[in-house]
Structures are given as structure tokens and as C-alpha cells.
């Protein structure tokens, strides 16, 4: 029931629009429902790169599924809505976005528990899956009766975007020339369903419709979007052209994207339906990077036994990308940094992997969408799983198993630290169900409230669980299930609109499990219950004893299921025992209380009998058995070798067993486990085993790289007993140096990639060696300097930039803390000789990079890290100015991130710079995301520690950042929440003074309560929320704030009722508006706010002062944290204006700018507004004297804590929040 049984009768008082009495007569109520959009037209007819603005309209064809449809709710953020028509009739509308500013009334508490609850409520209030939205359109009453015949409704909306902060990203290089010559381009971006940021739509993955997309751009530009390009039409003057795309396959709005720029175009030579787009002059790189894409297509089509679902595929490479890969229906947007030439070795596999991920998501994620957020794990799991199969086929089983181990280790580490990742959350049904993850500081109810790191781990766990399902039902059945899902979706997509048919294109957890059951006939219920319906991983501890009399292996497996992020495992576990007579698999049953398991041995211990030993893969090898226990036939033991449980295993066995496992076990996972274990056994035998591995060309290169670092650690532990040259030096000399002159390295030829990766890694590991004085041995340092000095790449067909960068990293690793002499001033002149050599080499490399930049500036990145390490070790004075200059906008993104990392580290070490002053200008969302992530990972202080940086100003800035400064980007808001949690925890930050009032009188409920700011709140009390927002959300707790406030004068799109220049707008005391008087008798008037006022207010909130300020108005100086993200994350403009004022008047530019900025809107807007003025004058008079008292009180209160974020008024919005 819409509005909880309250309905507004539009015909009652025509002169007041929406402001009419509420009727409680249930008979006149109308049914609210989620209408089905069957088709949508998006037409963008102007994209202005100078102003960074977009103008266009959308037309949605809506199929009513019930009679008497009276209201339509759509999603729209940032868009300025000019007019709405339903079937050619003007329709009134309300625009309210509760996520713009999450907490309005909570000005003192600064409590993260409260914020998380409020943010979840705000996101729920506009959640399209629940039938809500920011834009509420009133269907004209003339059309209500049509609902009986179920006629379709056409909803036409004109909108514009001005300097969007999210959804669309404009890249306009500051150089000479036309926009096309400058390489200016724009592309859509966002995390999860973010299409609402750039056009009004139903922004849900489960709402499918067909699409017609039209984009008018300059003749020199190309518009790339989803679907088939039907035609390109030039205007009469040939200065512009319109691209017409049609997408006949039902697709969710969230999977629609756009990219416009002066792209160069490459048609795939092997598959003409595939087209690639890149920025000017990158075509040669594009040709090489895309040369194997057709192989990925062939692989997926073969394993899924299903053709690629769309008629075309487009790849677009853009600068300043949000993520490396973004997949949309029939197109993917990639970072231009993935492109590379044939000379680059290291980037090649990474780019191929990104392409394979993008293509997997075309099948599962774009073509097949999800029923609800709780089913996201199925799509992420399937796309990740088939990507893994591609990895196995292209890069080999070793790489695949290494990747699985890497992903499992990452995920297990995160779960043990954070307390668990839940794949299939269910809500409702008691307190426990309403928050299934109480251990987290954020809600997992919506993708938009998740921490980014949690979401990455969620994707990781999803594909690992798919692999567990494959282990249970076999790969053959698994692929049959995928084929079945695709076949059903393919049949459904070709049907005309029938809602029940199109639902076959949506996957749910239930339908996926049902398919598995039907295809395989196996019950995987317990597996799903263990890994999908509950979070946490398993932690095993294993040890054994050999009973010689019984010839039995007594294995003990214990579990830790009490720590955070752990759960109890009951079920089968595989144990592999390598004996003298072969390798044997045993499946043990882990019961509730069983710890010990007896495993019979197949072979007797041998004394002096020479015989080849068979391995798991059938190979037979000679082994030197002198190291093993003479009484035992056991060579090594492995628990869960196939990683068929999401677990961490700590197993104890003798050092010789780990050495045998490293040398002779052919599984890379076993070898990596033994390398890790051997760090604890620094013996000559361990040294020999590791050296043997380094010399084995057949061994997987990543195992050999791991062995390098392990050998360095062992050498440092054996410092006093080590004999011979430093570890790895003689081996490197033998493999890579001239025979006649061992200190000169051979000319580079990176033909063997295995050798190349080893040659890169060995110097970095050698630099970790230390002598008795804990310094890097002199001959090792000279050896590394010689490698740099004699490096010769003239005859090599591959670039050596990554190799040179690793040599700089080796110099960094060789640094040790300086020996400080009291009162000595550090200068270059009194530097230690070795350190001076290192500094000279770094300076030379950095200067060379400016003349001849390397691919992706890898050497600059390494040099910046090296300089920071010199500072940290006290060799040169700590100074962040160099890093700040490299962090400026304009440098390559990797360089900026490396420089910012150094500044963050400096902030932590010196406690001088506030984390907010990390950098000045960052208009790139990715860079801001990296800053906040780095501050979270390496915080300047934590909630447990005292720090001079922990002060009220910082709390205030960070609170503003997450409360309103990041409303345009879900990911950034969650990053800010993470940082706040790391610095201050869940409750009120300790650095804030105690609130001044201990008792609060609640006049509304006629009772006195303890000040809620003194104790941590569990969440916003939904009953106290503004009644004004009740008209915004049906069936869901209203958002915890009162965005629907009004200005005294409406500023419409036309600016028809704007004040005269110089007139100051006075804002009313909004607290009066929260008390709405409702009486049943029809004579009584109800004091409700005008929707158009709130709409105008929000337009201002989004657009007005974010443009250059009017002459004579001084821009507000940002406090520190705003400096950090100043280009990206200004708080909404209205409040910036308010910041500089003692009380409520707003600057005159408020009205003026709106007028000037909206000149292009048509004459058809002002008719909504002309009847509002009489009412406003009355209200103004009514509240005038109260308003004066209020402002005096405010001024008096503000002196007590004038700069304090804990003061009674929020620094963001003095009058609004009070």
C-alpha cells in the first residue's frame, strides 16, 4: 500500500499541486507496485567537453501490471530534471536523494555505528529492487482509468548533467588544439548499479528491457555504446553526427555504457563482429595487445558449447579508467595502460588475463543477469571459474594451481582478520538474520555499502566455491549446467516482451542449485550450507607419529573453530602420503570429536636397498635416502592437497621431509608450501635443496623465485656458519655472466622467459643478505652496482625496463639503518660511501627517466620507493616535497600512486602532516580510491594509539567526506568509512570533547531522555525521522535525514522566480517543518513542503557553487582533508557557501548562477512553480519572529565550541541540521 495507506488526492486543491490533504480513507488508496519497463530510449544530444556537461532525454515504455497505477519511481542521481511527461501529459514529480547527505541531525556524535545504520537506510530508501527510487513521478489522473485496459505508459524525461562527479568521467588534457586533437574523451563508470548517475532509469540488474541509444557528438568524435550500430547520421552542416545503437536483447540498465572520444578503430581480422577502439596514436599497441582475443572467444564458446550471446563485441581503451576492466552488454571498457608492444614481457600475461575476465563476464554478468544482490555470488563465481579454466589452458596447470593457492591464501587471511565473507546473505526473520555479519563495520545488505576489499574477497570466494562444486559433481556436469543456463536465456531473449519469459535471463541461487541437482543428480546441500550460507574458513593443525610395530601412521588433525573468522568442519578430508613404495591417497572422515586417525603404511622401511621411488605422477626417481629416518618408510605427508576445503593448514613434519617434498613433489602448491616451511629450518641441507631447485630448468619459475627469497632468509640465519660466496652469487654468475669476466653480465637476451624472471628476482633476493654487523655484504652491493653499470640491452628484442626497475629495488633492499651520531646534520657530503653510490645511481636513473621514459615509468616508481627507504633509514633528511611534486595530476598514474604511498608513509612516520594533506589535486576516482586505501592500510595512527594528528578537525573533515563529500561514488564512500573505522573505531572518537548536554527534552513525545550522543547508538531511530521524507519511500523506513527542505524563493530550471541580483536569500528555520499536522477532518490544511522546492534545493545542492564562483565572492578555503581530494570530493555546493557565513543567509550568487546555468532549458518549466509564491509569503511571515530567536540562540551556543565538530551545529550546514 503506497505511503502506508495515505494517498494524496491531486484533484482536491488544484492551486497547490502536491501540497494537499492526506486522506486516511482506505477506499481511495491506490496500489503501489514495481512497474515493468519493456523498452527504453536514451538520447544524448549534446556533450560539451569544455563545460563537461551532457543534455538529453529518456523515454521509458512501462507496462502496468495492475490497475490504478498512480506513481512511478525511477533512479536518478546528479541529473537535473527539467520536465516529465507521461503519455504526452505533463507530470509532477519529486526528486529526493537521501544518500547525498547521510546524517543530518547527528552533528555531535560522529559515531560509525550510527552512520552505518543511517547509510544502509538511505540506500534502502532508493533501492530499485524494492521498488524505490530518487525520482517519484505522479501519473496524471486522466491516465489512471487507462490502467484498467493495461495500456502501456510512455514516460518522457528531459535531463542534463553538469560537471558530473560520478557515473561519467571526462578526460580533457590541458594542451593546445581542438578537443579531438587533445584526445579528450568521456566514458561511463561506476561500481555495481551506477547507471542512475548519468541518466534516469530503473537501475536494477533484475529489470530487463530492450534499448535504443542515440548519441550526437562532434564529427571528429566516435560514440561507442551497447548493441548494434544501426546508422550514423550527419547534421546538415556536417559538424555533428548521431550514432544510433539498438540492443534487442533484454538488458538491465546497469549494463548499459557509453564512451565518446576521437578513437582510432581496429576491426578484428579473425572475427569481423569484434571492434577495438583506442586513443589516437596507440593503434600499433592495440593491434599487438588484441592479437589473441579470438583465441579467448574460441575457448569459451567451445567449453560452454554455446555461441557468444551478442551480435557484436567492442573493446574501448580509455585513460584514467575506474578499474582495469568494466564489462557491459556487448562491450567492455579497459584501462589504456593495459596496451603494450611486442617488446614488453611482464604486461603480456596481465593484459590477456584482463581480456579473458571481460569476456567471461559477457556470458555471466551481462547476458545472464542476477535476480537480486543475494545471487551475485553465482555470476561472479561462474565467470571467475571459467576464467580459471582459460588460465589453465593458456598458462598451464602450474600457473592455474599457483593462482588457486594465491587466491585461497588471500581469502583465508582476510576472513581470519575481518571475521568472514558471506556469499548468500539472507535478511529478515529475527535479529540474527537482520544483520548476518555483526563482526563487520559495514552492512552487506547492499553492494553500495560494502568495503571494496570485502567485495574483492567476495569475488575470490565465489569462484573458489564454484571449484568446490566442480570437485563434487565433476567438470563435465558443471559445464552442462552452464550450457543449460545459457540455452534457456538465449531462448528467452528472442521472445517479445513477456515478463515470465525474460526472467529466464536472470539467475538466482535457487535456480542455479536446481539446475545442478537436475543435471548431476547429486545433492550439494551440505556444501552450499557450509561455504555459501555461512561465512568463515577452517583452520587445521596437523602432526603425526609413525608406529613402527604396527607399521601405521598415527595422524592427528586438530581444528581451531573459536577464533574470529573460523568455523567447524565435519566431513571428508584427503591426505596424501608419499612412501618409499609410492604415493597413496587416503580419505579421512573428520567427525565431531575425532582427532587421531590411523593410516596403514604400504611399504616397510628399507636399509641400504637401492630402488627407484615412484611419484604421484607415475615418474620414478632416484633419491638419496640418507637423510630420512631409518625406521620409517614415510617421505612426506600432505593434508588436503587439492585445496578442496577453504582452509588454512599448519602441518608439522621433519625438515628432511620438507626438503624431499620440495625436491621431488611435482605439484607447485606442495613446493611452495615446503619453501615456506624451510624458512624455519636454516640448515646446510635446506640450503642445498633450495639451490638444487634454483638450478632446475624444469621447475616452475614462480617456485624458483620463492626459493630465492627463502635462501636469503636461511643464509641470514646461518650467518656464522655460512661457507663460500654469498648465497646465489656464484649461481647467478654461472647462469648470466661472462665466463672470462665474472663480474660483467652478458648482453641481455630474454628469449627464455623462465631465465628472465629468475634473472630479475635473484639480485633483489641477494640484496636482503646481511653480515655480522647487519649490513649488506660489500661484494653483494658492488655486484648489484656492476649489474646496473654493465647492463647492455642493444641486441635484445625485448625491453629491459622491468629488469632495470628490479635492480633499483635490489639497491633499496640493500639499505640498512644509518648509524646516527648525536647532533650531526645529515648532508650528502657526510654520507656513508656505499649509500652515496646508491644515491648517485638512483639520481642518475631518475634523471634518465625524464629523457627516455620507460614503459609505465617502472624505473621512476622504483626510484621513488628507494628515496623513501633512504629517508626512513636516516641517510637523507625526511622531506615529502619531492613525492608531492610527483603526486601532482599530470604524471603517469603508477608514478602518482608510488609517490602518494611515500607521502602516506611519511605521514605515519613523522606525525607532522595530517593524512588529509596527502596531496592537492586528484580529479581521478581511481587515484582517490588508492589514497584512501593506502591510508587505511598504513594509517598515521590507530584507535588504540595516541597521536597529535588525532584531533577534532580531522574527525570533522573525515566525517564530512563520508557523510556528503563522496555521495557521487559508492566505492569512495566505503573507502572513507573504512579509514574512519581504522582511525577511530565504531564508537565516538576519543579526541572529541564530551557533549555539553546530559539531558534532552523531546517535545514531540513529551519526555526527557539522556543525550543520545553520550552513549553509542545502534542506529537511527526511524520513528524520529522527518515526516517530510515519508512521501519518498513506500514500505521502507524513511531515509535518516530531511533533504526535502526549501528555500524561500523557488529557483526553477528557467530561473523564472529567481531573486534580483544582489538580493540575499534567507532560509527558513527548517525545524518547524518537521512537525506536520494531520487531522482527519477535511477542512484542516496540512503543512507539507512543495516537491518543486525540494527539487530546486537539490539542484542547487548538486550544481550551483561547484562552478567557478561569481566575481566578488571569495571561494571557501578547504580544511586539510578536503585538500586531499579537492578536485573530486567537494562537499555539496550549498553548504560550501554556508561554511563561510555566521548564520543562515546564502550568497546572492545562489540565485544568479542557477539562472545563468539554465538558460538552455525551454519555456515549458515555469508553469509548475508560479502557484507556490503566495504560500511561501504566508509561511515566511509565520516563522519570522521564531527564526530570529533561533539564530540568536545559535550564535550564543556557537561561541562555546566555535571550531569544534562536536558543537551543537554542524560545520557543514549551520541552520539545516539543527
From TrEMBL:
Transcription initiation factor TFIID subunit 2 Ig-like domain mapped to chain residues: 536-653
UniProt-recorded Gene Ontology molecular function terms: chromatin binding; RNA polymerase II general transcription initiation factor activity; transcription cis-regulatory region binding
InterPro entries (alphabetical): Aminopeptidase_N-like_N_sf (IPR042097), ARM-type_fold (IPR016024), Ig-like_TAF2 (IPR057345), Peptidase_M4/M1_CTD_sf (IPR027268), TAF2 (IPR037813), TPR_TAF2_C (IPR057991)
Biased composition (Basic and acidic residues): 1190-1199
Top-level division of the source organism's lineage: Eukaryota
Keyword Transcription regulation on entry: yes
Keyword Transcription: yes
Gene3D superfamilies: Neutral Protease Domain 2, tricorn interacting facor f3 domain
One annotated GO biological process: RNA polymerase II preinitiation complex assembly
Protein name per the record: Transcription initiation factor TFIID subunit 2
